[in-house]
Amino acid sequence: MIRTLQEADIALIQEWHRRSGFDYPLPDLSAPATYIVDSYEGPVAAGTVKLIGEEYLWLNPDAKHPVRSLLNLQDALELDAKCLLNLDQLVAWLPKKAPKIFSGQIRRLEWRKSPWQSWAKNL
Q: Where are the domains of the chain?
């Protein structure tokens, strides 16, 4: 049976998270889409949806020195993501054929390659 999260479930999920050994912070469990799966033995699974912003950047291929523009743009996008959208994380995917210079620029903007393998599902 699938049911919504109850206050009593939070400690159990925290324990499952701790025992998983994965090094990432437990997401906010107050999201409206947080569920528990119960079986005859009790809770066996839990899941939630965390909102993450996907950022897109475009550069004029003829621009000589776009770094300052990218820094200003990044600041504006981060501020909106935090303050307007209430997000705590942004992601970006670079296509394999993106110029190498772009991956260098994104590092200058303090982005880090995720240690996690990314999967996507279209809804």
A: 2-48, 53-108
Angle among Cα 12, 18, 24 to the nearest 5 degrees reads 120
Q: Number of helices and strands (H, E) in the chain? A: 3, 5
Half-sphere exposure of 56 (CA within 13 A, CB side): 1
Q: What residues have CB less than 8 Å from 48, skipping those under 6 apart?
A: 5, 27, 28, 29, 31, 33, 34, 35
> At a CB cut-off of 8 Å and minimum separation 6, what does 8 contact?
none
Question: How do residues 40-91 score in pLDDT, each as one tens digit?
Answer: 999 999 999 988 899 988 878 888 877 778 888 989 999 999 999 989 899 9
